[in-house]
Amino acid sequence: MLLNAAASFGDAKVGLLLHGNAIVDGFGSDLYVGSALVDMHFKLFREDWAQKVFDRRFKDMVSGNGPRFDATTVIAVLPAVAELQKLRLGMEIQCLAIKLGFHSHISLLTGLISLYSKCGNVETANLLFRDIGRKDLISYNAMISGFTCNGEIESSVRLFREWLGSGEKVNSSSIVGLIPVYSPFGHLLLTNCIHGFCVKSGTVSHSSVSTALTTVYCRLNEMESARQLFDESSEKTLASWNAMIAGYTQNGLTETAISLFQEMQMSNVSPNTVTVTSILSACAQLGALSLGKWVHGLVENKSFESNIYVSTALIDMYAKCGSILEARQLFESMPHKNEVTWNAMISGYGVHGHGQEALELFYEMLNSGIRPSRVTFLSALYACSHAGLVREGDEIFHCMVHDYGLEPLPEHYACMVDILGRAENCRMLCNLSRECRLSQVPCVGCVARCLHDSQGH
User: Which GO terms describe its biological process (predicted)?
Assistant: First the structure.
């Protein structure tokens, strides 16, 4: 319960303190405590700690060197395996359960349904669900959530109706599993229907339900509906504040996001890494360097620096606010960087006209073994465009297509048009117009023809 509370409040310091106490008090080898610790660290966005806990608690057991497996043991382990999306390991545990004769245990099958769903294998999850003789609400909830998080909304709704048709009642977990948080686009009517059902059944008062609905409304840019739901919530949890602040930020309403954050501070709700990441994004969009520096102080005070998402958001904020040196210092101080971290720094250099530095960092990223995305290439091309680096831009474009097999988007072609257009390179523009789909990017062909005509006179 205490570990769940630490995760819910997003307090990393309390979480680490509880983790230490669990070890000191002799619960370090307890499987249920271990699984709860994995879940807590994931909710605190400390995936590295979650992985370490899993390796220490469960690997020996799974390999046969630890405590003997039984149904209770497996049920305790599966949530941690699912959170880490260790599909192969989960399959090994399932095989062992079959061998030891307790594979038909309903709690075990429900755990496996969650595992396969979180690993994207919803077909196998559904087969396991159909194998359950007497299904209960928990197994239905697991499968409803599994369908929803994999984008199979119609199957999720059908299963929800099937349970209601049997005369049984649903709970808040059923509703949260049904709400299309992961794939909201095109599902506004469904969200409205779920909202109406929640009001009628009284489940809208559950914070998890109202927060999920708020999140979907925000992602669909239905900000009035989201804010009304938020304001009407009797219990405003940290998750609900985060959903609303993130919604304003993602939809460009940055000043409102900052205002709501200040209101949250006055309500004595302590922010977590999700809150901080959203506010730093708002500061970056507004160019609010002073507020960004204040949030940086909050990050240090809360010991959030080790969180890769927070550090990346700080880099992005400093870079977009023009403080390139501070951004680079933070970048260099990070022990681990992901693709988004590199993109933020490369983009920062490009936006402020430091083309050579952006390209040096781009090639350093390639040499580091981190695979670039379309966003990475777009940032590098943008840097070439601003710095007038024609040859380098052409090389990067062809690297994206031929070395990494990424199909260019209209934004990539637009950057190339800008690069070649500024250099008045008609031949390369004509080649580009033949490569791209002119129906998607008509400007490529137009610019090529204009340059050709002007050079002909």
Answer: plant organ development; RNA modification
